[in-house]
Amino acid sequence: MNSWDTFIYYAAISVICWVAGTIAAFRQKRKTAIVLSVGGSLLFLSFIAVMWSTLGRPPLRTMGETRLWYTFFLSVIGIALYARYRYSWMPAFSTLMATVFICVNILKPEIHSTTLMPALQSPWFVPHVIVYMFSYAMMGAATIFAIYLWMRKTPAEVSDKEYAVCDSLVRVGWVFLTLGMTMGALWAKEAWGDYWTWDPKETWAFATWLSYLLYLHLRPANRDANTLFALLVFSFILLQMCWWGINFLPSAKGASIHVY
Amino acid sequence: MLQQYKQTIIRCICLLLAGAALQFLAGPADATLLAYPWGVIAAVNYLYLLIILSSNREKWQWVQSLYNRREYISSIAAMLLLTLLFGTIRQDGAPDGLFGLLGFTQMKTSWIFILFLFNLMTMLGLRAIEEVRLFRKSRLPITIVHLSFFLILVAAVFGSGDKMRVTVTAVQGEPTDRAVTKDGKVLHLPFTLRLKEFSMDEYPPHIYIYSGGTLTKDYVAIDAETRKGSIGAWQIECIEYIDSAGRMPGDSLYRPMKHVGATTAAYIKATDGTRAVEGWVSCGSHVFPASTIALPDSAMLVMPQREAKRYLSRVEIETDGEKSDYEISVNHPATVGSWKIYQSAYDRTRGKWSTITVLECVKDGWYPIVETAMWIAMAVGVVIFIFGSRLKRKEDEK
Ligand code: HEM
Predict the structure, then answer these.
(1) Cα–Cα distance between B205 and B36 in angstroms, integer?
(2) Which atom of ligand 1 is nearest to the CA of B145?
(3) Rounded distance from Cα A178 to ligand 1 centre (Å)
(4) pLDDT at B2
């Protein structure tokens, strides 16, 4: 009946490409790895494009739809990091994460509605959500990287270069959080007349943003892996709260216009 | 470690105590204290004070100590903790319990929250002024980020008393300037509003199966192209669709009708392979009752009210004898002088036949500052994304 029915085929082929890319990365076949992975991501993107055209609106509204973007960005960031820094384990992690999100989408698609309420019909809608999804994927990569560094050998051995990678991921992720939040504020002013109302979703978004801001300000004078990586993991938990956790939070029930 | 943080901890405790004391003595913070002109006066004095403090930082030891890294780290961390409480405690304004006493059930007006926000703003302001005074080109992006967020905070905090939001309910054809505030006070606006016409576009109707008190998740949408679908085991087919329909009393079928109160109706055939039913379903309106088709096992085929795609009020607004027309819809407010007018609601019982519209008029004189600062912050964000937060200069490394 709708294009979600074909999702499983697109997703399966994308995952096969990504897995093949991951294997190639481990075998030091860098070019093959990149080509395969990019191919998988492009195929995945084409599914999003098909969704967009059949729904007649951008697929950004339901949780299932935002997970599509998240999966896509995660795979792209995984490849980009691998291409840039040659961490051969990076595609493995991003493939794993992307696959988990695909499975969630297949098992619990949350796709009921094709309608878009008037407040969401705004030029801000697409950039606001895509920017956030990109940021979430960035932060996902930063978290995976932090956990990898943390668990690896003794944490004291984290090198300057490794910290620099982690910092760049967080910095870019934070910039996109800021962009998403600011676009949300400008949009809210157009739609509801106020740029910030401390709606539970906004409150949690602010907390997440502050938490990463804290990391950015702690870092220059700090090399204590336990503090820093714990903060990154904590921040990522806040991000999950903001993204979907508040749908289950008693304090937000009926109080948020963002709970779907 | 504890020794290092002694001053920080003392300062946070002082802020906590001061906030709690204010909360007990003065009750929840009242933004109207900052209504024009007091907000502007306070903001100017505050900025002046910050500049005095920062230009005397060498002379005054305690000011100097505010520039310590621990101080601003703690100001961000404290804000984070309070925001987490804000998000976790239900914001229902309940006055009892420890959180109620401290004002945490209404965090927006809690003095503790406001003082810590003020603390963060002050740290940020001192830092921003410092960065401007000791300007370094390589730090330009960070300087602008600090400055723009400082501006946003200043405008948001000191401008909070100047935000005005009132509701106007306009009945078609009748000019009104009567507005009601959130607490039910009646005001008169500096302009009059007359609703000329309210109109609404709707999404195609959806057919669901209703049983056991809930609707199925699946549905069949009926529009010009699609007339078929399935819900569970049931194959649904629409034989006839009337977008604007009516049914005369005693009649059994719907006919096209373009009149106030017209509803949407569809003639549906449904079968699950063994059983088949057919008949009219309609979502009904304030004139016509809804129609459903009974299925076996006390289930039925229903068409809920169609969802609004867009609703729009054509209004005529008169200011100082001058009349002009506006179209106001969600996400497309009208600007009249320093007011913005938003589409808010309509008469839901009549849906697209509503003859009233509910508009919200908002005045926020400080918003231009916030908006400008937000655009700047976004631009710098893009710069940081492309070039990094420090513009590359070898001597600035370390
Ligand atoms: C609370 C007061 C604050 C103080 C005292 C402060 C101070 C600092 C300092 C000292 C740096 C390092 C600058 C350098 O290395 O040249 C910095 C970096 C930065 N600050 Fe702040 N900051 C504060 C609040 C904020 C806020 C609220 C924001 C967000 C809008 C912010 C955004 C940034 C950014 C984006 C960086 C660059 C970080 C990086 O790329 O590593 N700061 N800040």
Answers:
(1) 49
(2) 30
(3) 13
(4) 65
B305 to chain A, minimum CA–CA distance in Å?
13
Strands (E), B220-355: 220-221, 228-231, 234-246, 255-256, 263-271, 276-282, 293-295, 299-302, 308-319, 322-329, 334-336, 339-346
DSSP B204: P
For residues A75-81, give the mean pLDDT: 88
| Residue of B352, B374, B380 to mutate, testing the A interface (most A Cβ within 10 Å of its Cβ) | B374
Q: Are residues B242 and B341 in the same domain?
A: no
At CA A179, angle to CA A174 and CA A180, rounded to 5? Answer: 95
Same domain? For B244 and B232 the reply is: yes
User: Is position B1 within any domain?
Assistant: no
DSSP letters spanning A7-72 = HHHHHHHHHHHHHHHHHHHHTT-HHHHHHHHHHHHHHHHHHHHHHHHHHTS-S-SSHHHHHHHHHH
Letter for the amino acid at B123?
Answer: M
Structure tokens at A25: 């990365």
- Report the percentage of chain A scoring pLDDT > 70: 92
What are the pLDDT digits (tens) for B38-58?
999 999 999 999 999 999 988
Pair B13, B46 in one domain? yes
DSSP state of B356: E
Tokens representing residue B40 in the block: 């502007």
Contacts of A246 in chain B (CB under 8 A): 87
Q: Where does a domain end: B279, B306, B333? A: B306
pLDDT digits (tens, 9 = 90+) for B258-269: 888 899 999 999
Which structural domain, as residue segments, surrounds residue B51?
A: 6-162+367-397
Select from B156, B189, B185 the least CA-distant residue to B175.
B189
- Total count of domains within chain B: 3
Taking the model in full, what pTM does it have?
Answer: 0.87
d(CA B200, CA B184): 28
B169 and B289 part of one domain: no
**How far apart, in whole angstroms, are the C-alpha atoms of residue B256 and residue B205?**
16
Same-domain check for residues B40 and B62:
yes
CB A182 within 8 A of CB B152: no
- The pocket around ligand 1, CB under 6 angstroms, is made up of A 171, 213, 216-217, 220; B 72, 75-76, 120, 123-124, 127, 139, 142, 145-146, 149, 389
Ligand 1 nearest atom to the CA of residue A219, by list position: 41
Task: Determine the pLDDT at residue A42.
Answer: 95
CATH of the domain at B171: 2.60.98.10
Report the 3 state secondary structure along B255-279: EECCCCCCEEEEEEEEECCCCEEEE
Name which of B122, B109, B136 is nearest B43 in CA terms.
B122
